[in-house]
């Protein structure tokens, strides 16, 4: 890639403002065909388990966060220094002090890697468990893991949707982050909520009360008449997908459970402030509320962390894409890390304090790491895309915490021991959800059975 060219990260925000939200009211029928699923019938699903997936698009800098190299040459180690945590032998960045206090409640994985350095290719490779047909672009050839989990586990009757995603406004199109479901169809797309949850006007579309009840009855009667006319000529499976969205909508419109789960005003002010009154913090809190209310897979995208009414500083960038042409990586980190530190650690502590640490697995990651060697643009430091090494954290899931799994070489360039791929992470996640990834497959557009993962082994150190 051209190091002097501006990199907008995983698609620019402006590019996607033109797209409408793909939620209950909007559905694209393109490429939808009937599908079939084959799954294990052994009855070993852990039906009460859940996942919170925090997505950091753009690529967080592993050598500024969880894999610091203080003894590396200056052009590698950067400006920040490691600090000790409450677990001997585990160090994190000095600008993540809240992480340092609770390292016994999460584990760091330092040796996951893949081969796709473009944001599009990196998103698709990481999120689907397969090499994409194109190394660029964000439209999936294969389903995102959240859609696969949702297809296997299904939607519970009533209450909150089983699969939910939270994003910034204008970033909620399904292909912004390669969250598409490919051959599984849009019926297993997430219920997407867009906007800044710290704003007083924030609300979740389609969850406003419908009163009086006769108005709801009128709408149902109208929908039934429209369905009768359309279903007779439906040969694509589109109506079936629309029926799935409609059932989710009616479940939520006829119960207070969903509205309460999404209502952050029901949380004590002290709890909201503990998470941070910014987008990162309030999305993390919302994720906890949703899994507590019964959601099975909740994705929260953390890009711009700014407070309501504020823009990010001139030396910072919108997402985690810290090229020198985009930002000053150290100034961007000084702006971003305190909000990230507070949001993630509050979520981890809350899961433990509320007894959710066995039921809920938290995964925090981006699509790749950053180049170990610092680059410059007009004297400004940055790091470029680097899928050959990255760091991520996991917490809860009834797993073993307080450890570092894997390592990179002295300059953070590649795994030194315990090399893994994203598939090992997903195999671990599917096991937590009670999904037998070795005996679960889907039928693709060509009629071929596609295993839920083509490879991957649960990470033994966590189990």
Task: Outline the structure in words.
- The protein has 13 helices and 19 strands.
- It has 463 residues and is α/β, with parallel strands linked by helices.
- It has a single domain, classed as Alkaline Phosphatase, subunit A.
- Strands 7-6-8-2-9-14-5-15 form an eight-stranded mixed sheet, sandwiched between helices.
- Helix 10 crosses helix 11.
Write the layout of secondary structure elements.
Layout: H1 13-16, E1 37-38, E2 50-55, H2 62-65, H3 74-77, E3 82-84, E4 91-93, H4 97-101, E5 107-109, H5 119-128, H6 145-153, E6 163-167, E7 191-194, H7 213-231, H8 238-253, H9 256-262, H10 269-275, H11 279-292, E8 297-301, H12 329-353, E9 360-365, E10 369-370, E11 375-377, E12 380-382, E13 385-386, E14 392-396, E15 404-405, E16 407-408, E17 415-417, H13 422-432, E18 441-443, E19 449-451
Helix pairs in contact: 10-11, 11-12
Properties at a glance:
single chain; 463 residues; alpha/beta; Alkaline Phosphatase, subunit A; eight-stranded mixed sheet; three-stranded antiparallel sheet; globular
Brief synopsis:
With 463 residues, the protein is α/β, with parallel strands linked by helices. It is 29% helix and 14% strand.
- CATH fold description: Alkaline Phosphatase, subunit A
- The general outline is globular
Radius of gyration: 22 Å
Tally the beta strands: 19
Summarize model confidence as the mean pLDDT. 85
- Report the structural category: alpha/beta
- Low-pLDDT segments, ≥5 res: 13-45, 209-216, 228-237
Major beta sheet summary? 8 strands, mixed
CATH architectural grouping: 3-Layer(aba) Sandwich
* CATH class (first level) name: Alpha Beta
**Structurally, how many domains make up the residues?**
1
**Strand portion:** 5-15%
Cα distance, first to last residue? 39 Å
Trace the largest sheet across and list its strands. Answer: 7-6-8-2-9-14-5-15
Q: How many H/I helical runs? A: 13
Helical percentage:
25-40%
């Amino acid at each position: 890639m051209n190091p002097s060219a501006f990199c907008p990260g995983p698609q620019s925000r402006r590019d996607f403002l033109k797209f409408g939200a793909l939620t209950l009211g909007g559905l694209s029928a393109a490429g939808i065909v009937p599908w079939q699923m084959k799954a294990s019938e052994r009855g070993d699903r852990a039906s009460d388990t859940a996942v919170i997936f925090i997505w950091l698009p753009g690529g967080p800098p592993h050598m500024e966060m969880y894999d610091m190299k203080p003894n590396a040459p200056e052009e590698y180690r950067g400006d920040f220094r490691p600090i000790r945590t409450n677990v001997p032998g585990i160090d994190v960045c000095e600008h993540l002090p809240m992480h340092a206090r609770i390292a016994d409640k999460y584990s760091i994985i330092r040796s996951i890697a893949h081969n796709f350095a473009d944001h599009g290719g990196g998103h698709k490779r990481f999120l689907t468990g397969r090499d994409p047909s194109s190394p660029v672009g964000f439209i999936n050839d294969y389903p995102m893991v959240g859609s696969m989990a949702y297809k296997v586990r299904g939607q519970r009757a009533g209450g909150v949707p089983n699969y939910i995603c939270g994003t910034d406004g204008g970033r909620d199109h399904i292909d912004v982050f390669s969250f598409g479901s490919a051959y599984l169809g849009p019926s297993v797309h997430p219920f997407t909520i867009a906007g800044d949850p710290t704003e007083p006007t924030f609300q979740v579309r389609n969850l406003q009360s419908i009163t009086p009840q006769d108005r709801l009855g009128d709408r149902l009667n109208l929908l039934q008449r429209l369905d009768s006319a359309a279903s007779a000529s439906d040969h694509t499976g589109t109506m079936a997908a629309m029926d799935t969205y409609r059932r989710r909508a009616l479940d939520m419109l006829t119960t207070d459970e969903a509205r309460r789960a999404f209502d952050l005003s029901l949380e004590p002010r002290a709890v909201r402030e503990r998470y941070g009154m910014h987008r990162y913090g309030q999305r993390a809190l919302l994720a906890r509320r949703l899994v507590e209310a019964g959601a099975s897979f909740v994705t929260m995208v953390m890009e711009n962390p700014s407070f309501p009414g504020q823009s990010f500083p001139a030396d910072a960038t919108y997402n985690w894409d810290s090229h020198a042409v985009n930002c000053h990586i150290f100034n961007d980190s000084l702006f971003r890390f305190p909000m990230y530190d507070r949001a993630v650690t509050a979520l981890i502590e809350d899961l433990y304090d509320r007894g959710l640490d066995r039921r809920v697995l938290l995964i925090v990651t981006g699509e790749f790491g950053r180049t170990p060697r610092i680059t410059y643009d007009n004297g400004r430091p940055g790091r470029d895309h680097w899928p050959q090494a990255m760091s991520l954290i996991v917490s809860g899931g009834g797993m073993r915490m307080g450890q570092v799994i894997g390592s990179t070489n002295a300059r953070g360039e590649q795994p030194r021991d315990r090399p893994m791929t994203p598939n090992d992470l997903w195999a671990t996640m599917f096991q937590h959800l009670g999904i037998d990834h070795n005996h679960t497959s889907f039928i693709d557009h060509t009629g071929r059975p596609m295993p839920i993962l083509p490879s991957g082994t649960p990470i033994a150190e966590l189990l």
